[in-house]
Amino acid sequence: MDVIKPEHRAASRSARSKGDRPLHIVQVGFDDTVFMSAPPSDTLSRQLDYGRELARQCYGSRMSLIVFTNEAVARRFERENVAFIPVIASRLQRLPKLYSQLSTLHRAQPLDVITTQTIHSEAWMAVLFGKLHGVNVVGQIHYDLFSSEARRDILGQGLCGRLNYALSLWMLRRMFAVRVVGKRIRERLLDAGLHRNVHVLPVPVTMDASRTVDHPLAPTHKVLFVGWLVSAKNIEEWLHVAEQVAAHDTEVTFEIVGEGPLRETLEAETKQLSLDRRVHFAGAVAYDQLPQIYRSSKVFLLTSKYEGFGRVVMEAYLNGVPVVAPRITGVEDIVEDGQTGFLHPPDDVAGMAASVLRLLHDEPLRQQMAQRGRDLVRARFDPERLSREWVSLLISAAREV
Asked: Which of 29, 222, 237, 335, by CA, is between 20 and 30 Å from 138?
């Protein structure tokens, strides 16, 4: 995996040995689950891990996490050396409010580096602020930037979408470094000459692996999906795979965990396919409850049109569940076809159904793939190492001004 350049590690160690002042690192994102009492993701714990790692590498440093949200009840809070700051704004208000918040933080304690969750609108404002104040910006790409479907969903269609894409690539070149979560994305950025300082750093999964792996549950005859119910996840196709599996297995059940704007439509589709007695929509579930749900399943089925990486695949493996998925960017970095699960061409409904049935009915194969999946995640995606390398990149960006 391509991560931090050796010279960046050396620069960071050298800077710390000289006793340079503590750093102030600002992250800008959109995951407002950090303000929930029972969050459905591990974003809060992950950010605190980043803060602890920053303190280890650069004593006295702190992080500020700016989060765009529409929730009027969201309130700023601090834990340890991390401040969580909501910016309540409509889409049109985001950029001026972001600049104002960055200015406020900079006056209180000068910013040393800004990192943005995307390379789009909020990144453009971060780059502008950085140029005016001498602050490096590290952009992040958490989806397949080169997928036309992904660009259409995220950047819009027609002329507007093309302009957003062109401006994003123009801004990309003005960033100090870029974090991506998949190898193929890095290769295409380098091949296109869009940036030279590109690092493959998947987002760490903080799920308690020791508890989930060492104390497995007896799985039920169930096929699972976990994620947002949005177009990109292609749950309509997931249901068609379920239909074919159910036609050959009268005992199998299906569980869909997550919320989203398509839930009502998907529940109606389930009834049309006569699967309403076999498919359970669980809704949003607190993150600490997910291990039990994973461990009660035999197969994790993913049918996404595109992914950045596929953290749910890692979560499934940590909990001893093999995966059937499309061969798409990010997912192919985790699933080893025929070893830890099965990969199929996108839209191969019959092939995916056959693989799901094989895993449901071949227990030795299922257990073998589950063990290989756990071993792969432990070896390649250790969360402490990923956090350490991500924070090292931010420190190197802060020091090189």
From this structure: 335
